[in-house]
From TrEMBL, chain A:
Listed GO MF terms: ATP binding; ATP hydrolysis activity
Pfam families linked: ABC_tran
Organism encoding this protein: Roseovarius tolerans
Protein name according to UniProt: Iron complex transport system ATP-binding protein
PROSITE patterns, per the entry: ABC_TRANSPORTER_1 (PS00211), ABC_TRANSPORTER_2 (PS50893)
From TrEMBL, chain B:
Places the protein is found: Cell membrane
Keyword Transmembrane: yes
Organism: Roseovarius tolerans
Protein name (database record): Iron complex transport system permease protein
Keyword Cell cycle: no
Length: 260, 355
């Protein structure tokens, strides 16, 4: 269980989060959605203990705060939004850095298996900086997987925190990464993901937290949160759920993709 | 034609640079021993250890003095300073997440130099009790403080929210170097005759003045900094992924940064205190090693120490032999070797560096 209780946060004198309370359950994929600048990423940074916030945050009973980062590392992995790398590490070396920080550092097969999961084993020896943005994002996901690996450990469920995990991926890999995240949750782990894509959110999330201007404005299952009324109010434009666009323009619904 | 499956099978076992990097410890160790031996045998006087041992030397006592009081301390100093500068470079580059960070280029050496000069000129103003307490360590300690203040200032200016702006770092380095140079000039202006003599000797930027006594002042500080630096491998690898990610990997980020800054200040400060400003070792050595064995800081830091020591001793041999019996300042040799490498990195990474 991940609990945030009355969390507020100011950055540079501006209040970013106002009295946010939420709880996310292990075994569920919890999506944080909302328009640009609504505080999604800041909330995720508070939930991972990257920045200290007012209020209390606990993960499986452990207090979440920057000074407890070492105790949290074996139990939760964090995928950042964009990751620039300072030196020419190869793909497998990046994954190994995550692997070495986790509980399974004694299993040398895991980094390659993590790359298998994101379909990048054949690029293991390539220089990370030479990869495309989407490939880099998948390498980072493999790094997080290699750090945590098991959805549950001896002291309870483990957690993945994903900041827009599919933002630079093509539709095939979007589905691939979301399936990996859902699978992690289905096997007992906790997943919290900041999501931009409302279709993917409604497809994969068990619970949706809708943010607006630093506040939680709706929380619940995708069916109760992703409604025409809520979306129109939050995103400031007239949105209708499940209406095909006018004219004969082609449109793609990821919901229709067959599992593969 | 190769099918995709075949291509994937070839990649089934990815190239592993870790073994290469570890083997490099051995090869670079052997290289260092070889360079030490060559350095011991070469010099303007024509004295050689071989000659001394086989008894073919004309003057045993003179040969002994030259080898034991001139060449050996010089070799020890060269190895120590080379290792210190190369490791300082590698640690700074890891800390600033940038391959262009080098104590000489971004003004840390100048800051350490200011510390050293201040100690030479104003050291007499310290309370006598303190003077007798730190004694011969006054100059290296002051250089350490100067270097430490410089790295701290530079890091504070150039790094915001865990990201270092390369442009800010290089420009702040120029400002820092200029300021340190100006204040150093002021110190020289205020110095008396004896202090000017000391300053001139210090400012030669050479290993020529190496003595066992001088070595004794620098060796403990450099030794400590080098040993501490070898513990930074995992932390700097984590920092390469960004400060936030390092935190999520369970790396004590603040402690790593503090230790890295102290290591750079200690190693650069002590090296500058005994040998003046010798540039470019800190940028060339880690860069070559990254090309050869990858950027993993664990082996990189150890290999940097070994190759840095060898490189500086090699440059010292050149500086002694090129215009023998006169001597070229070693800083010229390292700059001629190092400046093109710096430009090369800058040009090759033009797209990546947000200048």
């Amino acid at each position: 269980m991940l609990c945030a209780d009355h969390v507020s946060l100011c950055l540079g004198g501006t209040a970013i989060l106002h009295d946010v309370s939420l709880s996310a359950r292990a075994g569920h994929l919890t999506a944080i959605a909302g328009p640009n600048g609504s505080g999604k990423t800041t909330l995720l940074r508070a939930l991972t203990g990257e920045i200290a916030a007012q209020g209390t945050i606990t993960m499986g009973g452990l207090p979440v705060h920057p000074r407890h980062a070492m105790a949290l590392a074996p139990r939760r992995g964090v995928l950042p939004q964009a990751a620039r790398l300072a030196f020419p590490f190869t793909v497998i070396e990046v994954v190994r850095i995550g692997h070495g920080a986790g509980r399974f550092a004694h299993r040398p097969d895991l980094p390659l298996r993590a790359l298998d999961h994101v379909g990048l084993r054949h690029m293991a020896s390539r220089t990370y900086q030479d990869l495309s943005g989407g490939e880099q994002q998948r390498v980072q996901f493999a790094r997080v997987l290699a750090q945590i690996w098991e959805p549950a450990g001896p002291d309870g469920p483990n957690w993945l925190f994903l900041d827009e995990p599919v933002s630079s991926l093509d539709i095939g890999h979007q589905l691939g990464v979301m399936r990996l995240a859902r699978d992690f949750a289905a096997r007992g782990g906790g997943v919290v993901a900041v999501m931009h894509d409302l279709n993917l959110t409604s497809m994969f999330a068990d619970q949706v937290v809708m943010m607006q201007s630093g506040r939680v404005v709706a929380e619940g299952t995708p069916e109760t949160v992703i409604t025409s009324e809520t979306l129109s109010a939050v995103y400031g434009c007239d949105l209708a759920v499940s209406e095909p666009p006018p004219g004969n323009r082609p449109y793609i619904l990821p919901q229709n993709a067959r599992a593969g | 034609m190769m099918t995709l499956t075949q291509a994937k099978m070839i990649e089934a076992q990815p190239r592993d640079r870790r073994a290469t990097a570890r083997q490099a410890h051995l090869w670079l160790g052997l290289l260092l021993i070889a360079v030490c031996a060559i350095s011991l045998e070469s010099g303007a006087s024509g004295v050689s250890l071989l000659g001394l041992v086989t008894g073919s030397a004309q003057d045993d006592t003179l040969a002994r003095i030259i080898l034991w009081e001139v060449r050996l301390p010089r070799i020890a100093m060269g190895a120590l300073v080379g290792a210190a500068l190369a490791v300082s470079g590698a640690v700074m580059q890891g800390l600033f997440r940038n391959p262009l960070a080098d104590p000489g280029i971004v003004g840390v050496s100048a800051g350490a130099g200011l510390g050293a000069i201040t100690a030479i000129v104003l050291g007499g103003l310290l309370p006598p009790a303190l003077q007798s307490l730190i004694g011969i360590y006054t100059v290296p300690l002051a250089a350490f403080v100067g270097g430490w203040a410089s790295v701290l200032l530079l890091y504070g200016v150039a790094t915001r929210g865990g990201r270092t702006s390369v442009a800010t770092m290089l420009l702040a380095g120029i400002a820092l170097g200029a300021l340190s140079g100006a204040v150093s000039g002021l110190m020289v202006y205020a110095a008396d005759d004896q202090q000017l003599r000391d300053l001139t000797f210090w400012g030669l930027g050479s290993l020529a003045g190496a003595t066992w006594a001088k070595l004794a002042t620098a060796a403990p500080i450099i030794g400590l900094a080098l040993v501490a630096a070898t513990t930074l491998g995992r932390g700097l690898n984590g920092l390469a992924l960004g400060e936030a990610t390092a935190l999520h990997l369970g790396i004590p980020v603040q402690r790593t940064k503090t230790l890295a800054i102290l290591c750079v200040a200690g190693a650069t400060g002590a090296a500058v205190a005994v040998s003046g400003g010798i540039g470019f070792v800190g940028i060339v050595v880690p860069h070559l090693l990254r090309l050869a064995t990858g950027p993993d800081h664990g082996p990189l830091l150890i290999n940097s120490a070994l190759l840095g020591a060898s490189l500086l001793l090699g440059a010292d041999i050149l500086s002694r032999l090129l215009i023998a019996p006169a001597e070229l300042p070693i800083g010229i040799v390292t700059a001629v070797l190092g400046a093109p490498v710096f430009l090369w990195i800058l040009l090759r990474r033009r797209g990546l560096v947000d200048l």
